[in-house]
Design brief:
Aminopeptidase, elongated, 31% helix, eight-stranded mixed sheet, four-stranded antiparallel sheet, binds zinc ion, Arc Repressor Mutant, subunit A, 459 residues, Glucose Oxidase, domain 1
């Protein structure tokens, strides 16, 4: 059986456990996790070669269906209230105990071991001189903390409390082999153009998807969003689209502000948007509404997340780049999708946010949810019942399951709910909410009714 490649067919296939290309979800999950593993050791920061290498690897995962356009913006460039800071290129940072000759801390072992944006240093220090430059998590003695110092020039190392407890007497040779100076800030952008006319009553527009790419080896708080948004592009490239999909892969905060400052012409075209981060790890999905809270993206994602047992929260001006997109001067309809939000899980911003913290099943679960959201954005409509004088005879039209029994099946109920509310004003998403059914079920029912000439206006 082959179905035409559409977002609806893709959604239905994913909900049934495969992609429309026939790949099993478990296999897809392993593939996404392997991509995270390849990205994990790259020395990402606000700027520098780790960011560029990350974009290269993400583009490989797109299998040629779309390109990642790289933007290199000179340091010193103004972006609204921000100035692009110096570029940081880390080669390696390490501490050697000169008494034993042991390398006791080393970024070749873990990229979190150096404070991000540490100034270059090569010196020998006593233990007492070194200690103020060391950061640990006493409450989580086996984890390395994530620390940065983008705007205050200093250097430092992050290590486990156990490493610190076992530190010898020194003296210690300390090396941060890095360049910090004029250069560029790098961000990537993917644009999948629309292939179809926009939904009824809408002007042609774009869906903005944004993920930060500035964290080093942190699996959930960085790589989950990056691999999922690029996989979503790969899937959407194969189906007709009524919206364009624009993906921004930029360093957090300043990168988003930089993108906003350079795309004033694009902003009026953005109809819906999502910041994607923290989509792995245990816990149900959590949607954070847009600042206004009543945008179509809020309704679409709230429906999908609630149907999947997740949670919907109001906007707050703290978090990821939704803060920038929702800022008063832009006021874009951009929500945020994650699982357990930042700061609410113990592994957050530590070396315990590793590849073991994010499972393939969590990644595919989030991917299916994202495609369900796209299904709503692409396929929602306000159809009209063409046989409103009583309940039409579904049986004579061959769309009433003949094997039914006592209770009406979900498929029949979805058709009856759709007929009951298809007044040309009520959206399929509203019908789904009233019916307490998934949007996909109502969308399927509407297509069946439309095929039997009982409904029009599906767009
Ligand atoms: Zn973070």
């Amino acid at each position: 059986m082959s179905t035409p490649p559409t977002v609806a067919a893709l959604t239905d296939a994913l909900r049934a456990g495969t992609t429309s290309a026939g790949e099993d979800l478990a296999v897809l999950g392993e593939r996404l996790h392997a991509r995270m593993a390849a990205l994990y050791p790259l020395p990402r920061s606000l700027t520098g070669p780790g960011v560029r290498a990350t974009l290269d690897l993400l583009e490989q995962g797109l299998d040629g269906v779309a390109a990642i356009e790289r933007h290199e913006v000179p340091t010193g460039t103004r972006a609204h209230d921000w100035t692009i800071t110096d570029e940081w290129a880390l080669r390696r940072a390490w501490i050697t105990d000169t008494t034993t000759g042991d390398v006791v801390v080393d970024t070749d072992v873990h990229t979190l071991h150096v404070v991000g944006y540490s100034v270059p240093v090569r010196t020998t220090l006593s233990r007492d001189e070194l200690l103020p430059h060391l950061h640990t998590l006493p409450d989580r003695p086996d984890a390395v903390p994530y620390r940065t110092s983008y705007y205050h020039r200093t250097w430092g190392f992050c290590l486990t409390q156990r490493q610190l407890d076992g530190l010898g007497e020194g003296p210690f040779e300390v090396v941060v082999d890095a360049d910090l100076g004029p250069g560029h800030m790098t961000y990537g952008e993917i644009l999948l153009p629309a292939t179809e006319p926009p939904p009824d009553g809408e002007e042609a527009g774009e869906v903005l998807l944004s993920a930060h790419l500035c964290h080093p080896s942190l699996a959930n708080d960085n790589l989950s969003g990056l691999v999922l948004v690029t996989e979503l592009v790969r899937l959407l490239a194969a189906v007709p689209r009524r919206h364009a999909y624009r993906v921004v892969l930029a360093p957090g905060t300043v990168g988003a502000v930089l993108w906003l400052s350079r795309n004033a012409d694009v902003l009026p075209r953005i109809r819906h948007g999502l910041v994607l981060t923290g989509l792995g790890g245990p816990g149900a999905l959590v949607y954070k509404r847009t600042r206004r809270g009543d945008r179509p993206i809020d309704a679409a994602v709230s429906h999908v997340v609630r149907r999947r047992g997740g949670e919907v929260r109001d906007y707050s001006p703290w978090g990821y780049d939704e803060r920038q997109y929702n800022a008063l001067g832009f006021d874009l309809p951009v929500g945020r999708l994650s699982r357990t939000p930042h700061n609410e899980y113990a592994e957050y911003h530590t070396s315990d946010d590793d590849l073991g913290h994010v499972t393939p099943a969590e990644l595919t679960d989030a991917l299916v949810a994202l495609v369900e959201v796209v299904d709503v954005l692409e396929d929602d409509a306000r159809p009209r019942n063409l046989a409103p004088y009583g309940e039409p005879q579904l049986g004579t039209r061959g769309i009433y399951p003949t094997t039914g029994g006592r209770a009406a099946s979900d498929a029949v109920m979805a058709m009856l709910w759709t007929l009951a509310y298809a007044d040309g004003e009520t959206s399929l998403l509203d019908v789904a909410a009233r019916a307490d059914l998934d949007f996909a079920a109502i969308r399927t029912a509407a297509a069946t009714l439309s095929g039997a000439d009982l409904l029009d206006g599906l767009g």
